[in-house]
Amino acid sequence: LNCENLQDEHIKWADYVLISAIVGQKKSTKKIINIVKKMRKPIVAGGPLFTTGWEEFIEVDTFVLGEVEDIFSVFIKDLKNCTLKKIYSNEKSPDIRKTPIPDWDLINMPNYYSMSVQLSRGCPYNCEFCDVVQLNGRISRMKSKEQLIAELDSLYRISWRGKVFFVDDNFIGNKAKIKKEYLPTIIEWQKKKKYPFTFTTQVSINLADDDGLMKLMVDAGFTTVFVGIETPNTDSLKETGKHQNINRDL
């Protein structure tokens, strides 16, 4: 809905309506659910909003909660057999080295300012206000270098040029591997392709402690990073568990 308005025609043809949302989209998500239910279409819902608060959405027929890789095949089988359960959930974190490349043909590329890729999930920190640890854990699980290059290649082949957002929870969650293995691989790929992409990502403030890491990111084509400052107030940082921002000049 960030690209075009929802019309009845978008819903009428469907056997099921699948909805994914983050917490910040809660209000608009409830509006969509009401529209879909008035049209008597069954709803399957997943994503962070539902994983952390599915009980609030009594109108939803089926929930797919948590990371989907290990449970989606079961969901699809039950869908085909018309035996859908109320809840499908994953008890453990999946191996994202098995995650397939996105099917870019499903979107209208000109609608987008940036494409997204994901190298890792999880964050080693545990800020009280953030749901990343609840959703993806504190261990930074990473795709293989080959997977990453395959995803970049897939975007390159469909003629995407420009901005690519690494949507990792914390791109430097495993600094050692990022520095030693992944950034050199990205740099090599960018040079071979004559730098078709500029990268954006989100990181913790300790990036500023490592000049070598920052240089590698610049060499790889990173032009923007999002850093969570939240507040310079030490008491507030302690209260919310954002200890990585304490004892430094923000």
UniProtKB/TrEMBL annotation:
- Tell whether Hydrolase is among the UniProt keywords: no
Picking any one GO molecular function of the record gives: 4 iron, 4 sulfur cluster binding
Keywords in UniProt for this one?
Iron, Iron-sulfur, Metal-binding, S-adenosyl-L-methionine
Identify the InterPro entries for this entry. BchE-like, Methyltransferase_Class_B, rSAM, rSAM_horseshoe, rSAM_sf
Keyword Amino-acid biosynthesis among record annotations: no
A Pfam family recorded for this sequence: Radical_SAM
What Gene Ontology terms describe where this protein resides (cellular component)?
cytosol
Q: Which cofactor does it need?
A: [4Fe-4S] cluster
In this chain the Radical SAM core domain maps to 109-250
Q: What's this protein's name? A: Radical SAM core domain-containing protein
Q: Which organism is it from?
A: marine sediment metagenome
